[in-house]
């Protein structure tokens, strides 16, 4: 009876593996429908086509979320492995399924435990050059608005204003980027009552707070 | 036996009775001995022991108490003192008569001794009844004495001895029955007095009275109170006289601590210290006021220096005078107390770290040193006075947090003194370096010492060069040349431009290189023409004049050996110098006191369109003139250099700390860093933060992912 049972399990297994290999095939063929045949990658043009098929603007935060889900390493490009990783876990093997998966993806990203990871991923995703460690102010302002703008509207607006008028910094590094996220989560705004510049905040935030306070007075 | 006892009583009462003879005594002792040594039931020991006590009781009730009860005040004290003295005589005699009891009966039964029984009788019957009355009488006499009346101190002493003796080795009778009330009365007395004085008297008068009162109370203890009362009594009096009115007294508007400091009332201040050092935390307000006063005085000097440039020149001297004055206060008035040393230090730190009319104290102090140490400086002092002043410089430096800035300015000025032979005295130069080394450590002075050493080496080098030229006449450039070879690291950094040197001078340089590379072929020579001096002959129409000029100026002038006329841009191209230098040079030669060059147009400033010719008509009554070239104000460069050095110092300190601690919180790291660097300067918190961030970016440190206030060292 054991052997019967085990063969039943095997049957089930092979059925499900057949189903999943079917799914994989569909995922792969979807990939090739967007990929550039010469490079074998979905390039910016391919991404733009994908965006128009799922009816999302290519600058929409959900595209960044999709990249996060795929663990995509190079800005503007998806390779086959990344595509498989992302679409498999979204259980999407067609354009319509992918489109339907987006609201759930957004919920997943917004979960606090994932959001920190997504936030730091967003920074890393924008590092396009070898050994690049920081991002220019202009791009940072756009990125902040994209990833934090809906959640911390006033903080992001104020910080973006500050970044644009200050002259001490031309670029922002990861430490400062993460520091601002911590600031949004921990500091009472706009009274800033619990901000203490003696603590380990990055200097740029000390300066930002000084600027805000000068403005408030 | 009864006869004997009665006789004793009569003697004590002063009735006519012959003295006890030795036969009387022998007889009484023998009687009692016999009564105790019979066999039971004829042993009367116990009865005799009772009889002994009863004799006292009977005498006290019949004679002593009646004579005391109708007496009061001083009379009561006199009677009691006498009665107590008699009682002690009676105890002595009776206990001798009954001595045999002490030896056997009492010892065997562990009963109170005859002496104790005798004293206890007095305590229970007399002392218990009268001690309160006696206490009040004593206290009222003390108060009379406080008011200036003469009292019988011996009587008080004797009366108070009763309180002590009646305790039979314990102090509780004295303490509970007398001292507590006496202290309470003392407090009330001085509370009353102080509440009047504080309103009527000035602070110095009040302090005089208070000091006098305390002296008298101490005197009182030595004359008739028990010595154990001294600290308690003084504590009470000090509390009422000083603690209770501390603030009111010290802050009296026209005579309080501020006014005394303002008016230099050293005697009153000394008294204030003596008085307030006795009460708990009493000196804190005094030292705080002292600190405020000194800070205000110093800040006023800063203000004066802001108001007039002449005051700025004497600022450091005035600060020294201020320091001498108040250091003497600390030493004398305030008996060298640490609290006042601290107050003085903190006060000086306040105004010694303020900017003084656009300069830092560090810069002013280094300029002050330069004036003392250079030839023809504005301070004309004897050797001893110079030594003393240098000592004070080092003392003041201790209050300045930017010690590195002082060092940099000092080095810049020391370089000028050494290179242009302006130092007045080598001994003083070395002496201040020794003092600075003691105060700030070897690292602080190592470069300066290197500079002084370099110069001695350079002199030796020069004589070797001259010898070399003698032996190799073909290498002689035809011009007398002196070269000062220095070690780059010791000296301030100088701009070295690629000045196009005149051909004559190029020969000189080549000649020296030829000499130098024979012995030091692995060392690289960098020529700093901006520090050079040339003596050249100007052949003017009327006479030849020796011109003492800088190498730069000489390079301009030598161009006119070749060219009749040159325009600004031609000179600039020929020399290969920047506009700033060219303007400065041409100004010194054509617009200043000595117009060696004619400028077209003839205006007071240099413009790029100007033309220049050699002024053949120039003359001067001297045969030799020095044409000054105003030095570039390099203050900004010094400050910039110091800031750069600080960044390195902070980086090094952070890395050192993190290397040993591995993981550290932000605050702890900042704290340790400030601590490490405080000997040289006080790092700005923002700069430390910036350096930490820079080290994170350079992968020396990382921020802990879970706790963003922690840093980790990345080895």
TrEMBL record, chain B:
Cellular component, GO annotation: cullin-RING ubiquitin ligase complex
Keywords: Isopeptide bond, Ubl conjugation, Ubl conjugation pathway
Domain Cullin family profile residues, every copy: 360-590
One Pfam match: Cullin
Superkingdom field: Eukaryota
InterPro entries linked: Cullin (IPR045093), Cullin-like_AB (IPR059120), Cullin_homology (IPR016158), Cullin_homology_sf (IPR036317), Cullin_N (IPR001373), Cullin_neddylation_domain (IPR019559), Cullin_repeat-like_dom_sf (IPR016159), WH-like_DNA-bd_sf (IPR036388)
PANTHER family found in the cross-reference section: CULLIN
UniProt family annotation: Belongs to the cullin family.
Name of the protein this chain belongs to: Cullin-1
Source organism: Cucumis sativus (Cucumber)
């Amino acid at each position: 009876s054991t052997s019967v049972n085990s063969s039943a399990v095997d049957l089930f297994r092979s059925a499900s593996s057949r189903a999943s290999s079917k799914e994989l095939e569909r995922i792969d063929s979807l990939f090739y429908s967007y990929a550039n045949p010469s490079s074998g990658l979905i390039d910016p043009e391919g991404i733009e086509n994908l965006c128009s098929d799922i009816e999302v603007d290519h600058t929409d935060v959900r595209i960044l979320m999709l990249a996060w889900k795929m663990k995509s390493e190079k800005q503007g490009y998806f390779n086959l492995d990344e595509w498989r990783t992302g679409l498999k876990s979204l259980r999407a093997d067609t354009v319509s399924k992918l489109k339907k998966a987006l609201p759930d993806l957004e919920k997943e990203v917004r979960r606090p435990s994932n959001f920190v990871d997504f936030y730091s991923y967003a920074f890393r995703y924008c590092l396009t050059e070898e050994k690049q460690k920081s991002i220019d102010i202009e791009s940072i302002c756009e990125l902040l608005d994209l990833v934090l703008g809906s959640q911390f509207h006033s903080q992001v607006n104020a910080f973006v204003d500050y970044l644009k008028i200050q002259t001490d910094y031309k670029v922002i590094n990861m430490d400062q980027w993460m520091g601002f996220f911590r600031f949004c989560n921990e500091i009472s705004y706009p009274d800033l009552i619990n901000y203490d510049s003696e603590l380990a905040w990055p200097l740029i935030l000390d300066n930002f707070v000084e600027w805000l306070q000068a403005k408030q007075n | 036996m009864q006869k004997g006892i009665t006789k004793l009583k009569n003697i004590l009462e002063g009735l006519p009775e012959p003295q006890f003879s030795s036969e009387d005594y022998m007889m009484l002792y023998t009687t009692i001995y016999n009564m105790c040594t019979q066999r039971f039931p004829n042993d009367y020991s116990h009865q005799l022991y009772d009889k002994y006590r009863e004799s006292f009781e009977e005498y006290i009730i019949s004679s002593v108490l009646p004579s005391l009860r109708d007496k009061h005040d001083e009379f009561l004290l006199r009677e009691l003192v006498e009665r107590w003295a008699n009682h002690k005589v009676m105890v002595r005699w009776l206990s001798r008569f009954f001595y045999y009891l002490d030896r056997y009966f009492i010892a065997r039964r562990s009963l109170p001794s005859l002496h104790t029984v005798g004293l206890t009788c007095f305590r229970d019957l007399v002392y218990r009844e009268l001690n309160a009355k006696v206490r009040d009488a004593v206290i009222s006499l003390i108060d009379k004495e406080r008011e200036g009346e003469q009292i019988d101190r011996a009587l008080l002493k004797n009366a108070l001895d009763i309180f002590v003796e009646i305790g039979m080795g314990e102090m509780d009778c004295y303490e509970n029955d007398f001292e507590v009330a006496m202290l309470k009365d003392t407090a009330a007395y001085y509370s009353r007095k102080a509440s009047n004085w504080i309103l009527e008297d000035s602070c110095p008068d009040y302090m005089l009275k208070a000091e006098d009162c305390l002296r008298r109370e101490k005197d009182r203890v030595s004359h008739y109170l028990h010595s154990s009362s001294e600290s308690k009594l003084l504590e009470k009096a000090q509390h009422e006289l000083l603690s209770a009115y501390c603030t009111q007294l010290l802050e009296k508007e026209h005579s309080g601590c501020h006014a005394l400091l303002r008016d230099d009332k050293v005697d009153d201040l000394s008294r204030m210290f003596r008085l307030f050092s006795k009460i708990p935390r009493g000196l804190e307000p005094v030292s705080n006021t002292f600190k405020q006063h000194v800070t205000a005085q110093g800040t006023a000097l800063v203000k004066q220096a802001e108001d007039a440039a002449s005051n700025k020149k004497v600022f450091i001297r005035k600060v020294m005078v201020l320091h001498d004055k108040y250091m003497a206060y600390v030493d004398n008035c305030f008996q060298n107390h640490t609290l006042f040393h601290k107050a003085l230090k903190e006060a000086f730190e306040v105004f010694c770290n303020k900017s003084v009319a656009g300069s830092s104290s560090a810069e002013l102090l280094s300029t002050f040193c330069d004036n003392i140490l250079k030839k023809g400086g504005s301070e004309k002092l004897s050797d001893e006075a110079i030594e003393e002043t240098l000592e004070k410089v080092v003392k003041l430096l201790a209050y300045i947090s930017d010690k590195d800035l002082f060092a940099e300015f000092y080095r810049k000025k020391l370089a000028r003194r050494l290179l242009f032979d302006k130092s007045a005295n080598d001994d003083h130069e070395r002496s201040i370096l020794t003092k600075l080394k003691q105060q700030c450590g070897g690292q602080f002075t190592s470069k300066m010492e290197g500079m002084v050493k370099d110069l001695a080496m350079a002199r030796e080098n020069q004589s070797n060069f001259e010898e070399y030229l003698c032996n190799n006449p073909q290498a002689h450039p035809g011009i007398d040349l002196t070269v000062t070879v220095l070690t780059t690291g010791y000296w301030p950094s100088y701009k070295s431009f690629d000045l196009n040197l005149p051909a004559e001078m190029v020969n000189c340089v080549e000649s020296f290189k030829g000499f130098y590379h024979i012995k030091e072929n692995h060392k690289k020579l960098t020529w700093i023409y901006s520090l050079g001096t040339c003596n050249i002959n100007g052949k003017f129409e009327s006479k030849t004049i020796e011109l003492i000029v800088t190498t730069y100026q000489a390079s301009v002038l030598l161009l006119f050996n070749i060219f009749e006329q040159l325009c600004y841009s031609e000179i600039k191209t020929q020399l290969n110098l920047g506009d700033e230098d060219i303007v400065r040079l041409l100004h010194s030669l054509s617009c200043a006191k000595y117009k060696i060059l004619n400028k077209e147009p003839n205006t007071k400033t240099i413009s790029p369109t100007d033309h220049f010719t050699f002024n053949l008509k120039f003359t001067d009554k001297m045969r030799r003139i020095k044409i000054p070239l105003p030095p570039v104000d390099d203050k900004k460069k010094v400050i910039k250099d110091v800031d750069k050095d600080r960044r390195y110092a902070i980086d090094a300190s952070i890395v050192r700390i993190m290397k040993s601690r591995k993981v550290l919180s932000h605050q702890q790291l900042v704290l340790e860093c400030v601590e490490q660097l405080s000997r040289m300067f006080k790092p700005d918190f923002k700069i430390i933060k910036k350096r930490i961030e820079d080290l994170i970016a350079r992968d020396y440190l990382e921020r802990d992912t879970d706790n963003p206030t922690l840093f980790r060292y990345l080895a």
